[in-house]
Amino acid sequence: MTDFTWTRSQFDLPEGVVYLDGNSLGPLPRAVPGRMEAAQREWATQLIGGWNEAGWMEMPRRLGDRVGRLIGAEPGHTVIGDTLSIKVFQALAAALRLRPDRRIILSDSGNFPSDLYMAEGLVKLLGCDYELRLVAPEAVEGAITEEVAVTLITEVDYRTGRRHDMARLTAKAHEVGALSIWDLAHSAGAFPIGVTKGGADFAVGCTYKYLNAGPGGPAFIYVAPEHAQVAEPALAGWLGHDAPFAFEQGYRPGKGIERMRVGTPPVLQMAALDAALDVWDGVDLDDLRARSLELEDRFIAKVEASCPGLDLATPRDHAERGSQVSFRHPEGYAIMQALIAEGVVGDFRAPDILRFGITPLYLGEAEIDAAVEVLARILRDALWDREPYRTRKAVT
Amino acid sequence: MTDFTWTRSQFDLPEGVVYLDGNSLGPLPRAVPGRMEAAQREWATQLIGGWNEAGWMEMPRRLGDRVGRLIGAEPGHTVIGDTLSIKVFQALAAALRLRPDRRIILSDSGNFPSDLYMAEGLVKLLGCDYELRLVAPEAVEGAITEEVAVTLITEVDYRTGRRHDMARLTAKAHEVGALSIWDLAHSAGAFPIGVTKGGADFAVGCTYKYLNAGPGGPAFIYVAPEHAQVAEPALAGWLGHDAPFAFEQGYRPGKGIERMRVGTPPVLQMAALDAALDVWDGVDLDDLRARSLELEDRFIAKVEASCPGLDLATPRDHAERGSQVSFRHPEGYAIMQALIAEGVVGDFRAPDILRFGITPLYLGEAEIDAAVEVLARILRDALWDREPYRTRKAVT
């Protein structure tokens, strides 16, 4: 049984703040500063030797396996590096190469824009009639036809929190001979995931949201065992080479997931990630999911009871949601500004979404209740209808 | 006049070590730990707000300008992010797009393998008769013909330290209508560079060598003003979008150098870079170059006087070298292992290169002399001809 009092004690949270934005940037785990200091000591004392002696060179694989456990991957199939956008590009380029006679990347209009932009960039680069086809989230299943080379789906919608059925869509893709790439940005650390069980061909994600690795924490990529040894890396960096330190002139992809490495990995960010993952050693993901749904349901019920004008954007069905709850309101931006000013931190996504991350590692009933109370007061007293909350900035 | 006693006091160097590998990984600047702690405090207290309040979102541009000053770029044309390999890919893809009727990427066999691998990966991705053409370093100028779309040259050879003439090769490229990409991995922080004056179209580099940003420090990319607004980003990530937080479905490249940003930047690594760059505020690059040549010449003269069997691999002509000195020896690997065991840290590059980085920010005559003394003793007493030094590891 996961001890959520213990997990909560592992975070350094500011006094007086209810933090409901861990789905955007997780808070500082208490283990991080010590580990960062240790990494700097390694740098100072071992210098270049740290790559071997301190195990820096192995970190992408070692931490890949730590993340792999959280997404239901067998050891040896997940690696850390780069940013999520780069990992999307890698997965897409490799998947298209595995389906050379097909031209369609299928995604949905609810996908995170950067995934779509990276696909657009790749399609433009490739030319040759490649196409990024977008359909509405609910139309994805029907659009998986034999023309489709690969589906690029983010499991949980970054705005509404609506969750796709990974196993079903993947099965459908395989039925028609297509491959599936899953973006787990809002899934990893949010609930149990079974990339292997679900049959995902590729999965990518970031570590700075539910995994709490800090701003700019590196991304991860998973490649299914059956593709690991045949996937061709389009971003053919030296650390994905079979013998990086032989300095051969020609590229030979490394063994399995190693080939998805590119350049020199960010050791200091990885040290933060390593420390952040310690908390997860004490967490059972089924307990996490149960607790998350309990808190989400409480939040939804209380908001609906006391905050008129807010429309639930997140599906009520447990199976169809992740670990965030979103509401729509035409004045969503101003309301969120007022909330933040009152110490309740969520975020806003255009055009009208108020987003609240429900993260049981460091949130409980008290925070949920306090957040709703403040939200209700802001709406009741129309606090949002004042300067400076109504002033919409171009960039939030 | 640069005060090299002061610069040296800014580094945390281990006792009893002569560190001649700053061309691979710079040592820890004393300002880094405090800055890392501050960045973690920002994370803990400002949480998601740090992206605006702490200026995290602007760091790639702000630090880009700080690096830009060191490579002779005008403000606003350099940005930080990703790894050098990724930046090579970005520059290449953009350059090829600017020369749509040409198919040749020209590079030399002395280029760093990852640059060649990334080019190879891009060529394979593009198909359509694109070609990576490799010639010997001394044959580059003659090979710049009207077929060439872009030259991809690393200014200083990572093994020999031989330096290409940036202005001349760039002029030759322009003469035939080609573009030039310069990899400044072994140049930035090694000597004065004039990317704008030299007419470079693109320049890329890393920050963990002479700039001392720490293991896995992020890379940089410079795009010449005349291309900045027309270069098409192949890696079309959201933070290179003109309005990243509008979450539009289609990609529109950001203004100028902004479009070379891709994903969420590594804030903790950037904090280390920021601190590392402080030292450079007190450094005149002409002083640095003079001091570096002085120490290099001293090192060469002493080695040649007292270390028989070592052949200088670095050109004697000042204009033709960077800030590293390399010697060849058939037993180079074992000799370097013995040197490291004796506290003199350089590195080895296959098949027979002993590499020594001469970095005046923290090295002076005493270290140069001590290094040569140890090297001479190792050779005289054949210390290298013992276990474990002779045991060549697969990965060094």
Automatic annotation (TrEMBL), chains A, B:
The modification N6-(pyridoxal phosphate)lysine is found at residue 209. Its cofactor is pyridoxal 5'-phosphate. It comes from the Bacteria. InterPro entries: Kynureninase, PyrdxlP-dep_Trfase, PyrdxlP-dep_Trfase_major, PyrdxlP-dep_Trfase_small. Its EC number is 3.7.1.3. Homodimer. Keywords: Hydrolase, Pyridine nucleotide biosynthesis, Pyridoxal phosphate. Catalyzes the cleavage of L-kynurenine (L-Kyn) and L-3-hydroxykynurenine (L-3OHKyn) into anthranilic acid (AA) and 3-hydroxyanthranilic acid (3-OHAA), respectively. One of its GO terms (cellular component) is cytoplasm. This is Kynureninase. Pfam families: KYNU_C. The keyword Cytoplasm does not apply. Pyridoxal 5'-phosphate binds at residues 84-85, 112-115, 154, 183, 186, 208, 238, 264. Belongs to the kynureninase family. GO terms for molecular function: kynureninase activity; pyridoxal phosphate binding. The keyword Hydrolase applies. One of its GO terms (biological process) is NAD+ biosynthetic process. Pathway: Cofactor biosynthesis; NAD(+) biosynthesis; quinolinate from L-kynurenine: step 2/3; Amino-acid degradation; L-kynurenine degradation; L-alanine and anthranilate from L-kynurenine: step 1/1. It comes from Allosediminivita pacifica. It catalyses: L-kynurenine + H2O = anthranilate + L-alanine + H(+); 3-hydroxy-L-kynurenine + H2O = 3-hydroxyanthranilate + L-alanine + H(+).
